[in-house]
Design brief:
Elements (H helix, E strand, L loop, with lengths): L5 H4 L23 H23 L31 E2 L5 E4 L9 E7 L6 E8 L11 E5 L10 E3 L2 H6 L10 E4 L4 E11 L3 E9 L8 E7 L2 E7 L1
Length: 230
């Protein structure tokens, strides 16, 4: 036997495997069909995953600018004309001044507070052409609500209206009328009620039972006061 180098002398012989060449290249695991299948499935899953992330990625939505609702201008309530009228109370009974009531047949609306019920009763003050403006007897004040029923009285200064609407042909000066019953009350005449009570506003026409409810008037200096109602 020829001499061999020491390094080859003690080297173990490779086992001989049938069908496998000892000197051929070792087969790579990539060529294994199972490995290729796993790699293919993984690639598909990766593509699906990345596609899903891109597809379902939340989009940036610009906030929608909402216009403010239109402002509706609510009209303020109309001022109550009655609020400006004098309210005669026990503490403050003044309803007018002598200066503003200086002319005969001048009138002024006011409210008289009923001391028993607390109700503010619409009333009217009239300057009669019978005396000085500084005298209490020169004025007639009365409640505008008819003594019976729900009608409101009216002060009629238009003589043609007295002749036309009320059919009172003898009209010569302003009068107080009840538009519901067509009754007329004469401010210049007195009427005697049961109990020997004299009140102003005798019935000149109509079926009303009595004149309007009178309100007592006092003049103090330049002020006209409404002090008491029937």
């Amino acid at each position: 036997m020829p001499d061999q180098p020491n390094s080859e002398r003690f080297k173990a012989d490779m086992p001989q495997i049938p069908g496998v060449s000892q000197n051929g290249p070792r087969r790579s695991g990539v060529n294994n069909p199972a490995v290729r299948l796993v790699i293919g499935l993984f690639s598909v899953l990766l593509v699906v995953f990345l596609g899903a992330r891109i597809l379902f990625r939340p989009k940036h939505i610009e906030p929608k600018v909402v216009d403010p609702p239109p402002q509706i201008e609510v009209p303020s309530p109309a001022p109550d004309p009655n609020a400006k009228l004098p309210h005669a109370t026990e503490e403050d009974p003044g309803v007018a001044s002598v200066a503003e009531m200086s002319k005969p047949w001048t009138s002024k609306d006011f409210f008289f507070k009923n001391r028993l019920s607390g109700e503010n009763i619409p009333a009217l003050l009239i300057h009669l052409p019978t005396g000085s403006a500084a005298q209490s007897s020169t004025y007639w004040a009365f409640a505008m609500n008819a003594p019976y029923g729900n009608c409101k009285l009216e002060y009629v200064t238009d003589l043609e209206k007295l002749r036309g609407d009320y059919g009172y042909r003898a009209a010569k000066h302003p009068m107080v009328g009840n538009p519901c019953s067509r009754s007329l009350f004469d401010p210049l005449k007195m009427s005697n009620l049961p109990g020997d009570v004299w009140v102003r506003g005798a019935i000149a026409q109509g079926s009303d039972l009595r004149p309007p409810l009178g309100i007592e008037i006092e003049v103090k200096g330049s002020h006209i006061l409404a002090t008491r109602m029937e």
